[in-house]
């Protein structure tokens, strides 16, 4: 059975200890690390790649690191559970696509419920990858897309947009999370674009960069001049 790996970041050592003890009695969960600052948490996520991160909303430097889109864009994929003292933070949790919100004092039965919810979501992702589909979290629900139907994924004004021939889907998931989940032929051709190389029909020069066009549509996606040689190499492999 797949074990859900969990990291905790809180300025209160007693909270970390209590969460760790609550997790320890459940064989489905594994505590893999802790952090006291945003910088330490980002390093922990890079090194150990937890499935779930439980975060104190008021953790020192958290808003300039984990909650900063410049950082989040390059972090491995994970699910977020927020801890906070303000009930209004439940709305913030939704904005950050958190799988759960825990007001202080923490109700540990609620914590475990959030973790089982995260585990179910994680298992669905694994199953969909096996079925050659990907689960995407939208603002108002979920969509299941076949990987071969995705043309490209782009960032526009801090939103991530997934394009197919006929549709586009907006999510708050980071572009990096798709880099982690999709196969090699989805290549990051630009800071703002992740392209399905199998769908490219042609590439045209556009100023000092390039535009790729796709079969069955007039949609296009950017390729930086620094990545064009690598794109050519991957297309003819």
Report what the structure shows.
This protein has 237 residues and is an alpha/beta fold. The chain is built from seven helices and 15 strands. The strands form four sheets. A five-stranded parallel β-sheet has the order 2-1-3-4-5, with helices on both faces. A five-stranded antiparallel β-sheet has the order 10-9-8-12-11, covered by helices on one side. The protein has a three-stranded antiparallel β-sheet with strand order 13-14-15, with no helix packed on it. The radius of gyration is 19 Å and the shape is elongated. The mean pLDDT is 88.
**How many runs of DSSP E, i.e. beta strands?**
15
What is the terminal separation in angstroms?
A: 37 Å
Helix and strand element order: EHEHEHEHEHEEEEEHEEEEEH
Report strand %: 25-35%
Query: Regions with pLDDT < 50 over 5+ consecutive residues?
Result: none
Give helix % range: 25-40%
* Main sheet properties: 5 strands, parallel
Derived structural class: alpha/beta
The total count of helices amounts to 7
Average predicted confidence as pLDDT: 88
Rg calc: 19 Å
Key terms for this structure?
237 residues; alpha/beta; 5-stranded parallel beta sheet; 5-stranded antiparallel beta sheet; 30% helix; elongated
In short:
The protein is of the alpha/beta class and 237 residues long. The chain has seven helices and 15 strands. It has a five-stranded parallel sheet with strand order 2-1-3-4-5, sandwiched between helices. The protein has a five-stranded antiparallel sheet with strand order 10-9-8-12-11, with helices on one face.
């Amino acid at each position: 059975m797949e074990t859900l790996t969990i990291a905790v970041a809180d300025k209160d050592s007693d909270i970390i200890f209590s969460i760790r003890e609550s997790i320890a009695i459940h064989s489905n969960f594994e505590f893999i690390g802790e952090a006291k600052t945003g910088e330490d948490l980002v390093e922990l996520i890079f090194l150990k790649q937890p499935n779930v991160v439980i975060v104190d909303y008021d953790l020192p430097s958290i808003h300039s690191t984990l909650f900063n889109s410049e950082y989040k864009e390059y972090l491995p994929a994970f699910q977020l559970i927020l801890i906070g003292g303000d009930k209004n933070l439940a709305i913030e949790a939704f904005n950050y696509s958190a799988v759960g919100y825990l007001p202080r004092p923490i109700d540990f039965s609620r914590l475990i419920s959030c973790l089982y919810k995260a585990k179910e979501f994680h298992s669905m992702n694994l199953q969909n990858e096996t079925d050659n589909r990907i689960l995407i979290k939208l603002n108002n629900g979920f969509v299941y897309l076949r990987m071969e139907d995705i043309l490209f994924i782009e960032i526009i004004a801090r939103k991530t947009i997934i394009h197919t021939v006929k549709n586009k889907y907006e999510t708050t998931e980071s572009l990096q999370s798709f880099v982690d989940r999709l196969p090699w032929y989805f290549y990051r051709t630009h800071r703002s674009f992740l392209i399905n190389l199998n769908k490219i029909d042609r590439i045209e020069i556009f100023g000092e960069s390039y535009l790729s066009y796709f079969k069955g549509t007039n949609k296009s996606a950017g390729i930086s001049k620094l990545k064009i040689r690598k794109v050519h190499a991957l297309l003819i492999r």
